[in-house]
Amino acid sequence: xxxxxxxxxxxxxxxxxxxxxxxxxxxxxxxxxxxxxxxxxxxxxxxxxxxxxxxxxxxxxxxxxxxxxxxxxxxxxxxxxxxxxxxxxxxxxxxxxxxxxxxxxxxxxxxxxxxxxxxxxxxxxxxxxxxxxxxxxxxxxxxxxxxxxxxxxxxxxxxxxxxxxxxxxxxxxxxxxxxxxxxxxxxxxxxxxxxxxxxxxxxxxxxxxxxxxxxxxxxxxxxxxxxxxxxxxxxxxxxxxxxxxxxxxxxxxxxxxxxxxxxxxxxxxxxxxxxxxxxxxxxxx
Amino acid sequence: xxxxxxxxxxxxxxxxxxxxxxxxxxxxxxxxxxxxxxxxxxxxxxxxxxxxxxxxxxxxxxxxxxxxxxxxxxxxxxxxxxxxxxxxxxxxxxxxxxxxxxxxxxxxxxxxxxxxxxxxxxxxxxxxxxxxxxxxxxxxxxxxxxxxxxxxxxxxxxxxxxxxxxxxxxxxxxxxxxxxxxxxxxx
Lengths: 285, 187
Ligand SMILES: C[S@@+](CC[C@H](N)C(=O)[O-])C[C@H]1O[C@@H](n2cnc3c(N)ncnc32)[C@H](O)[C@@H]1O
Fold this sequence. Notes:
The complex is a heterodimer of chains A (285) and B (187). Chain A is an alpha/beta fold.
């Protein structure tokens, strides 16, 4: 069943502008086709019969904003999603990072945290746990709460274990959690180096310098201009020779930064060039 | 570039595509999008397989790629494929629809909103109800709806659903599909 179309383009534009002005959450540069589906969806779920009703609720009832944000952002995620990406992290990125005294990694748009626990497992297996810091951020505080708990449905563990093996994992995946009725509770030693914080990629600034930034399946929800802005934010937050990992269908090809980064594998992982290399490249391209 | 031709299919559709693609004109003036249900990961092989059957360029697009005439776009596994009003592609990892991601409904409807009466959408063989609501959206936007003749379908559930629940303009046998597409090319 497809959602009936309750909302016209202009109405959506003006609602998003209003929300931005009123609350400071700016969704005006999200990809139109998918945000429209999301807004339609929330109208169905929350049983608004007209767009005006949704708008009234949002403007008058400030507490509704949180629910709106939760529903229009897509939180779907998995552990070791796209195992070949994690394999490349394992084989090509972590060995490089291992040479640093302190490794700072930023996972932007981490949702409920499955990705963060996956990276922690890689770090542990690479013997880097003692000198790593995993900064995990998202716009949505309620997914971060789940991420902090590290408790995921047991029904997913079979898939995650398969993904883990495909990513090059050689241990028994079940070592990493305690099974408890319907849930798998991930071990505390994985959590020790995780720092969770809300961060809005649209409006918040760079807060540190990292050697690796992972932002997967978040930029697909942004239009090209907003993507460019976020790439700038990542560039400002990435050390020279740092790495940027994106979702399997995301690319920096459309961004000006493209020429300062080179893709290190067939996976969506780029490495920031050194200053001299950057100048060289700019002069000759 | 005004026109879009979208092909949706599930079980039993690959065979049809392998028959249709070799017969397509080599310089189509519009893009084709193929949304096929497939089992989860593993096969970016599909684009490769299809690319060996045609001189048209077959790609599994990245997010925000611009639709180009003469290209065949394959919806990547595990993403919904949407069309923006500037004719770029948006990929979306939201919930499955009709147990499917990519969902045919999502692409049909989203394309219909942008390409309106110049949307052509065909539903092929399959055991799923995905695509039918999308065809209705295509029709509501004055586009053209087509369906594989259920008699020729390996699994006739999907085409039969389409015929009983949507206004279908053309029912085609596999060997008529390429001819139909090629004819669109000659304005
Ligand atoms: C589809 S999930 C991706 C999760 C994970 N990175 C993965 O690839 O599996 C997208 C996440 O991006 C977050 N998000 C959306 N807009 C954001 C913004 N402006 N700033 C930060 N996070 C955002 C959502 O809350 C959601 O958790």
